[in-house]
Amino acid sequence: MRTILGRLTSINVMKVVWACEELGLDYVREDVGGAFGGNRTPEYLAMNPNGLVPVLREDGFVLWESNTIVRYLGAANPSPLWPEAPRARALLERWMDWQISVLNAPMRVIFWTLVRTPVPERDMGALARAVGEAGSAWAILEGHFAANSFLAGEAFTLADIPAGCFAHRWFSLPIARPHLPAVQAWYERLLERPAYAQYVARPLE
Ligand SMILES: N[C@@H](CCC(=O)N[C@@H](CS)C(=O)NCC(=O)O)C(=O)O
Q: Which fold does the domain 86-197 belong to in CATH?
């Protein structure tokens, strides 16, 4: 039995759901976190001491950190979406780490300012700085997508999932985006994937 604990409005939960769908894995998902709560109980903290979502539970095995969960699902369920060769895999993993280390912080500011903060309380200076930083990060991908359809080359892989989740926010929110046509074309390719359209490209809340 595979269970994803986490509300679907969380970008990190979306990553895991999208990965399960792409890999054709059975799962159930339980709403935890945000307005649903349940992530500060002793039972939950025993699974994830950070009190954050998502958590993946497979029988007695428990795992947290969304990108780690996506990597684990790929490794445990061999498919063309997650290559076995160490170098091929490392070239994908670097983009997943890049999402956490470079893209995450400014995208979080943009999302929280425009979606989760009441208008009078918004720090528009911080928003402008974050849009600039995120734009510089997306420009790095623009260079990559000038010669590649996906992060691994010509085929979609699990490496597209972490940054792909942020692409929907980047292209949906009312911000002054730099012109990055290759990144936009990648986002449009992701929108053609049924699981992305259903679980990631949702109204922002
Ligand atoms: N690095 C962690 C971050 C997890 C995280 O920040 N989760 C947020 C939602 S996106 C959370 O649990 N917030 C508290 C809540 O939902 O109650 C991961 O990728 O899994």
A: Glutathione S-transferase Yfyf (Class Pi); Chain A, domain 2 (1.20.1050)
User: Could you tell me the end-to-end alpha-carbon distance of the chain, in angstroms, rounded to an integer?
Assistant: 29
CA distance 8 to 15: 10
Atom of ligand 1 nearest to the CA of 36: 17
Q: Where are the domains of the chain?
A: 2-76, 86-197
| Tokens coding 49 | 């001491």
Q: What is the spatial distance between Cα 114 and Cα 44, in angstroms, rounded to a whole number? A: 30
pTM for the whole thing?
A: 0.97
pLDDT tens by residue, 91-117: 999 999 999 999 999 999 999 999 999
Q: Which of 5, 11, 12, 63 has most ligand 1 atoms within 8 Å of its beta carbon, as the pocket-test mutant?
A: 12
The Cα–Cα gap between 190 and 145 comes to: 13
In this prediction, residue 176 has a pLDDT band, given cuts at 50, 70 and 90, of very high
Instruction: State the Cα–Cα distance between residues 65 and 83, nearest whole angstrom.
Output: 21
Q: Indicate whether residue 200 lines ligand 1 (CB < 6 A).
A: no
- What's the topology of domain 2-76? Glutaredoxin (3.40.30)
Question: What CA–CA distance (Å, rounded) separates 152 from 164?
Answer: 13
Closest CA to 168 of 33, 6, 11: 11
